[in-house]
Design goal:
The chain is an alpha/beta fold and 435 residues long. The protein has 2 domains: 183 residues, 3-Layer(aba) Sandwich (glycerate kinase, domain 1); 169 residues, 3-Layer(aba) Sandwich (Rossmann fold). 37% of the residues lie in helices and 17% in strands. A 6-stranded parallel sheet has the order 3-2-1-4-5-6, with helices on both faces. A 6-stranded mixed sheet has the order 7-8-12-9-10-11, with helices on both faces. Strand 7, helix 12 and strand 8 form a beta-alpha-beta unit. Helix 9 packs across helix 10 and helix 13 packs across helix 16. The chain is globular.
């Protein structure tokens, strides 16, 4: 392709931007808006949570054709992810560990859905991050106790499904409880999926859908990961008192849910952008999970096979994947799962001259840092060595952020106000044409 590394960086960043744009609420939400309530006195209440919640609320306001006097609402988003709205209040709270602002917002949402009538519509806008932002601890446990459990879950290597199984059972609003609180109003949920498999019961911990998980499963998860629960929470799980509403409960008869953007749709947009550049894409999957460094070894092996044998694709090609990997934190470094993936990939590729990569979180925040992710080039390992950086030692310390910061290879976008989770692209160039 006879392109410079600068052009390769721009190409990879363009693929990421295409993926994010496909999940922009302004693009994906309007087609799903329902008709306003037509019953006399029918009101529309908009509530929601997640990193995309504010942008979803604004997209709703921009396209809603109902009576503004009958519209109200409140959504909660991560700090820094808010946008101006007219009638729907936006509250900002902490993520990924819940705080008092999120707790107050969750309480206000529960209060707002009380006392509605069958003529009213509750529109629920959900996206990734909603679990932490809807902080409504079950009776008997404090916010600080819920924060401690959340921190332990996030650092132990548990999958997002496991994390949300526990969070649902320790919540007064998740796991279908918001839908039951809104009875007898009609409830319509529009969700942007950030979870592998696009399971509505896992997105934002499923506040408006039946929960298929059980107290027994939640207990098994905390035992397996050696997480200490507050006494009241442990007792509630053991006794079944914390059980969530299940399919068939009468309260779900007036509930409807739709997923309006997914990792797969974002990957498809990136694939189309690659084809426009004359590069053959291969989507390896939208639901890749497991330890980030182990995923890097597997995907790195596929990339090396493409470079050496043209299998499963001949260069120029790009391997695209999404999902949500995990990081079991054992060191004291800085870094999210996408930066850790790239650090592992750098070691797996061994400085291969014709392979480049990007890995970013589509919400613009990799873990709890200020970057979306990072870029990897054939010279990453060599430049690190010149700078005195031991990549293996940094990986052992979970210190990927510091590596890519020192090399100037962080991708910093700021909040994208959407979230379909991880995006990875590994670009393989033909050996004869690589710059």
């Amino acid at each position: 392709m006879a392109v410079t590394w600068l052009r390769q960086r721009a190409l990879l960043r363009g693929l990421f931007d295409a993926a994010v744009a496909a999940a922009d609420p302004a693009r994906c939400l309007p087609a799903w808006l329902p008709a306003p309530p037509d019953s006399p006195g029918g009101r529309t209440l908009v509530v929601g949570a997640g990193k995309a919640a504010a942008a979803m609320a604004r997209a709703f306001e921009d396209h809603w054709r109902g009576d503004p006097a009958r519209l109200s609402g409140i959504v909660v988003t991560r700090r820094g992810h808010g946008v101006p709205t007219r009638r729907i209040e936006v509250v900002e709270a902490a993520h990924p560990t819940p705080d008092a602002a999120g707790q107050r917002a969750a309480a206000r949402i529960l209060d707002a859905v009380k006392g509605l009538t069958p003529n009213d519509l509750v529109l629920v806008l959900l996206s990734g991050g909603g679990s932490a932002l809807l902080a409504a601890p079950m009776a008997g446990i404090s916010l600080e106790q819920k924060r401690a459990v959340t921190k332990a879950l996030l650092s132990c290597g548990a999958s997002i499904g496991e994390i949300n199984c526990v969070r649902k059972h320790l919540s007064a609003i998740k796991g279908g409880r918001l839908a039951l609180a809104a009875l007898p109003a009609r409830v319509l949920t529009l969700a942007i999926s950030d979870v592998p498999g696009d399971d509505l019961s896992t997105i934002a911990s499923g506040p408006t859908v039946p929960d298929p998980t059980t107290c027994a499963e939640a207990l098994e998860i905390v035992r397996r990961h050696a997480i200490e629960l507050p006494g009241a929470a442990d007792q509630a799980l053991r006794s079944g008192a914390a059980e969530t509403p299940k399919a068939g409960a009468a309260g779900f008869s007036r509930c409807e849910s739709h997923i309006i953007a997914t990792a797969q749709s974002a990957l498809a947009a990136a694939a189309e952008a690659a084809r426009a550049q004359g590069i053959t894409p291969l989507v390896l999957g939208d639901a890749i999970e497991g330890e980030a460094r182990e995923a890097a070894r597997v995907l790195g092996g596929i990339a090396l096979s493409c470079a050496a044998h043209g299998v499963p694709l001949s260069a120029p090609c790009v391997l695209l994947s999404g999902g949500e990997t995990t990081v079991t934190v054992k060191g004291r470094g800085r870094g999210g799962r996408n930066a850790e993936f790239l650090l592992g990939l750098a070691l797996a590729l061994g400085g291969h001259r014709h392979i480049h990569a990007i890995a970013c979180d589509t919400d613009g925040i990799d873990g709890s840092e200020d970057n979306a992710g990072a870029l990897l080039g054939p010279d990453t390992a060599a430049r690190a060595a010149v700078a005195g950086i031991d990549l293996r030692a940094r990986l052992a310390e979970n210190d990927a952020y510091s590596v890519f910061e020192a090399l100037g290879d962080l991708v910093i976008t700021g909040p994208t106000r959407t979230n379909v989770n991880d995006f990875r692209a590994i670009l393989i160039e033909p050996a004869a044409e690589a710059g």
